[in-house]
Amino acid sequence: MGGVFISYRREDSAGHAGRLFDRLREHFGKDRVFMDVSGIEPGVDFVEAIDRAVGSCDVLIVVIGKKWLTCTDAGGRRRLDDPQDFIRLETATALRRDIRVIPVLVQNATMPTEGDLTDDLKRLARRQAIEIGDPHWDSDTDVLIGTLKHLLPAETEAVRPADIKTEHGAPPTTSGKPKSRLGWLIAAATAAVVTLGSLVSLMESTKGVVGRFKALFSGPPAQTEKAQQVPPAEKPVLPEKAPEPEKPVIPEKPVVQEKPPVMDKPPEPEKPPEIPPKPVQVKVPNLAGQSLEKARGILRKAGLGAGETEQRETREAPAGTVVGQAPKPGTKLARGEKVRLVVAIQPAGPRMIPLPDVTGMALEPAVKLLREKGFTSIRDKVVETSRGAPGTVLRISHRPGTTVQADTPIELLVAAEPRGGGDTAPPMVPVPGLTGMKIEAARELIARAGLTVGDIREKAADKPPGTVLAQRPPAGTKVARESSVMLVIQSSAGTGATLPPPALVSPADGVAYNRFPRSMALRWQPVDGAVRYSVEIDCLHCCESGKWCSDLGRPWRVVPNLTETRYAFDFVGAQPGRWRVWAVDKRGREGAKSRWREFRHTR
After folding, report:
1. How far apart are CA 101 and CA 93, in angstroms?
2. Residue 76 pLDDT class (50, 70, 90 cuts)
3. What pLDDT score does 519 carry?
4. Which of 160, 329, 343, 476 places its Cα 20 to 30 Å from the Cα of 413?
5. Is the whole-model pTM more than 0.85?
6. Helix 137-151 vs helix 10-28: crossing angle, to nearest 10
7. Region 527-543: what's the mean pLDDT?
8. Do 386 and 517 belong together in one domain?
9. How far apart are CA 562 and CA 585, in angstroms?
10. Peptide bond before 327: cis, by omega within 30 degrees of 0?
């Protein structure tokens, strides 16, 4: 008889595992669902005990919560890295024996990747998981139970000999004669009673017929006396033919079996045709964002069914989630009708992901969040400073909110406590007033104050080109040394300034250099119906003077829709190290321009 084995971590998901255990035992029975390996006797090899316990089941359910991967022992070592960890042994045994392993995600946990698991557990990352959330506990567990019904063999119970019945419904007996005689006596008495009742009924029904027979053959009593007084010499003269009495009609069948004539019933009035009841109408639930299995469970609970499933390439939703449905949510359908679902799949090509802001978070949660979003290359760099709490992220290598490729290297700058204590903290300096200055003078003043130039944005006004219109932080604000200052300057559009024409990107490979001076280069290549570009600078702070370096470790950026859009890169010669990009469609109309990008370490 097959069974289900539930594996869980007590520190992680004991409550959810117990709740699931009760639900499954209620459905499959207490002899087919097992919680964990407990009560191993002293001296028994617990590895062999786990192997026997897991091997005797058909399905292993691994309950994974938020701390399933990160639980540590008293020494700070991750428990999953311990070869003798019970959870690892249970899961690895099931994978090795090719037992069906079903990961169950609770507490909004995510499925571990192969990089998070040990070698003997890497196959777990390829198992299709099911999410069970507290708001939809019943429907989610119904989906799991439906899956287990197909996996577990049908339950059979041994029939005891005492329960086996004969063909006539009586159990067989071992003492033959006494019970056999009693049965014959009862049967004989019953037959006699039935026969006697039939005879009595027959006699009552044929009493009139017998009387008529007597009158026919005996005659009246007076005539009989006269015949006896006639002398012997005389013989009674009998008529040649006696008057024929009525012949009795003997029915072919006993009268007892005849039924009285049934009077014809008056015809019943015709019933009006039945009007079929209207089908029950139910509202179509909103399934957007739900996984396919969960959406099917919600439809079943609402009395509807899942129809055809369509796949749609999109990066706006996780793969396998519902992004569309027909009919729309709120539409009323008859119970039992089907709803067509549209499920998201990842399109081909590099995966683009919005970068979350992890500034101020502790290193471990920040790395976990980035991995959950889909980033695969994350590294950290520790710097001694008192600007933030030790172990927190001070800065991220890319601007939060921008969309980058999933395999882009992400570097986190993490604060560490200075060795000399708090006295080594960088001093606070006031931000100088820069409004009204030329950008060149503002740069020089910012450098003298021990600060750096941050983002530079343009705005159209009535000032000369390059004039500082605003700044952030405001003048007089005290900030840590080496903090950046954002500037808003007068744009050059419409001022009559002559700028070099933009370099339009074509599908062919190409390279363009900054003209004033030649310290920055743009390279582009066609790739899969798109174009990718790279900005490189002649770096002064590199290990080799004059070495060309790519932009912040991101050698290539992909520009989609090459067949519909042309992209232009504008290198402004008056301010080396700055560039921007904007789109120009086939009709020559300009789209939104990006912000200026600046490189401080160019020649």
Report:
1. 10
2. confident
3. 56
4. 476
5. no
6. 60
7. 56
8. no
9. 10
10. yes
Look at residues 151, 171, 191 and tell me which one is the last residue of a structural domain: 151
Which band of pLDDT confidence, cut at 50, 70 and 90, is reported for residue 297? very high
Tell me: do 31 and 85 sit in the same domain.
Answer: yes
Contact present, 459 and 469 (Cβ < 8 Å) = yes
Cα 548 to Cα 551: distance, rounded to the nearest angstrom:
10
List phi, psi (to 5°) of 246.
Answer: -65, 130
Helix pair angle (207-218, 176-205), 10° resolution: 60
DSSP secondary structure letter of residue 383: E
- Residue 557: in which H helix or E strand, if any? strand 557-559
Q: Examine the domain organization and report whether 18 and 131 are in the same domain.
A: yes
Joined tokens for residue 558: 């992909």
| Assigned token pair, 508 | 């062919």
The H or E element containing residue 53 is helix 46-55
Instruction: Count Cα neighbours of 264 within 13 Å in the Cβ-side half-sphere.
Output: 2
What pLDDT band is residue 397 in, cutting at 50, 70 and 90?
A: confident
Q: Is residue 416 within 8 Å of 384, Cβ to Cβ?
A: yes
Strand partners, 64: 105
| CA 429/CA 94 separation, integer angstroms | 62
Single-letter amino acid code for the residue at 507: P
Which CATH number goes with the domain that contains 454?
3.30.10.20
Last residue of a domain, one of 94, 118, 151: 151
Domain count for the chain, please give it. 5
Distance of CA 310 to the CA centre of its chain: 17
For β-strands 547-550 and 338-345, DSSP reports them as unpaired
Q: Which residue has the tokens 């033919």?
A: 241
Instruction: Identify the bridge partners of residue 549 per DSSP, sorted by sequence position.
Output: 537
Q: Quick check: is 585 in a domain?
A: yes
Q: Which two tokens stand for residue 544?
A: 């080799």
Q: Could you read off the pLDDT of 42-72 as tens digits, one per residue? A: 787 877 888 888 888 899 999 999 999 999 9
Q: Does some domain include residue 549?
A: yes
Q: Which helix (H) or strand (E) holds 350?
A: none
